[in-house]
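A protein record in our archive is deliberately plain, so that people and models can read it alike. The record that follows is passed on verbatim for readers who wish to inspect the format.
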Amino acid sequence: MITSIKKITFPNRLFLLLAVIFGIVMVNIIPPVQAPDEIGHFIKAYSFSEFKVKPQANKKKFTEKESTWGNFGFDVPYEIKSINSYAIDKNGKNAKYPYQYQADQKKIKNGETAFIGTGGITNYFFVNYIPQIIGIKVGKILNKPIIWQYYAARYLNLIFYILIVFAAIKRFPFSKLGATVLALNPMALFLASSTSGDAMIIALSFFFISWVSELIGKETITDLKLAISALLMVILVLLKPTLIVLGMLFFLIPNKTLSLKRKAIWGISIFAACILCYVLWNKLMVDQQLLYRDFANPSKQVATFLKDPMIFFNNFRENYLFGSKGDYIVYSFVGTFGLLDAPMGFHWVILYFMTLVGASFVQEKDHQGLIFYQRVVVVVMMFLYTVLTFFALYQIWNKVGRTASIEGLQGRYFIPASLLIVPLFSSREKILNIKNNKMNIATSICLVLVLIAAIVTLMNRYPVG
């Protein structure tokens, strides 16, 4: 056993230790449904656990001028409504177990239900919620109350995040220490410690990037590995359609390893499968045009973009690329916790990014490096993912032709593809004239400081009742 532990690299051990410690602390100090959109995530998970897949409308027909937001969701036990109402009224502060109103106990005991809209979570895929579903199912089998099931969902979400990301770091052929810093992003850990389905998006994205990156250095690639890659790609697109950009990772694999013919056959097949599965899933869900019409007109926004794309790109350039609104994206990538109302000090954000850059230069013995064209592909991937993410939010949350900014945009949406940053620092030659063990110590200290700062920020936001 000791020999097996020694074979695990330092970054893997560091991630496991810090993720477990700080993840468990976050699970226990943050009251229920305090992550962004968390009530929608929990309701989706609970409904999936009862094999309810298609969202319900709270009425049969909507008039053209009638609001639709919040009118698609599920009937759930009244205890969930009570927990949500308690969380909203208390604002998460001085909240105490069982985090619900005593006045609702009669309705809860009578098994009454309530309709709750799931908002922007309405169309999420079931894989987002596999850990939460397991936790909820265990609670039901043991005949535990909803609040117990909720915390079981939190713990399972954290466990799955840790296991999947641990495997991703283990496979990652570039700087494992850099990958560890990204995996311990305080915002990612905060989401993993809630019932948010975004944790699975981040974890599986990291695993897919590490899986395909590992194939770059192989002499041959079997059809089985390509089939696994295809399955992962399809799942990612169903989790978050903008992640289809990660399919470009296959272009990093040398032609001698994966011939152009095989790339073309598999590439076209995977792309077609992604589009087909995405369309079929969304046929089961609520049309975006109807779901988001209170805020925007998604189809008209696309038509306007095709007619004059510079409306969007000028917005992107003036407000974010060279404007001050880009600051919030950087900030919320690392530490804007709670219901977007608990930001860390910006100096901790700076320390986090400095730690990431330094750690990304640290290479293991059998690391890989990228040649020029491969770096170009990675940069193009990052750019396309950024633009697609900006436009996806622009399309569904903003009035047609809006130029002032892009509502709904947050830095956490960029975490899933952030692992692409690390290979850009890779080199077959040692760049930093510092021993790895010294960088390991420095990185560990910086990460602990940043994570402690995150915990203190959350404890100040959610004082113990």
About this structure: The radius of gyration is 23 Å. The first strand starts at residue 56 and ends at 57.
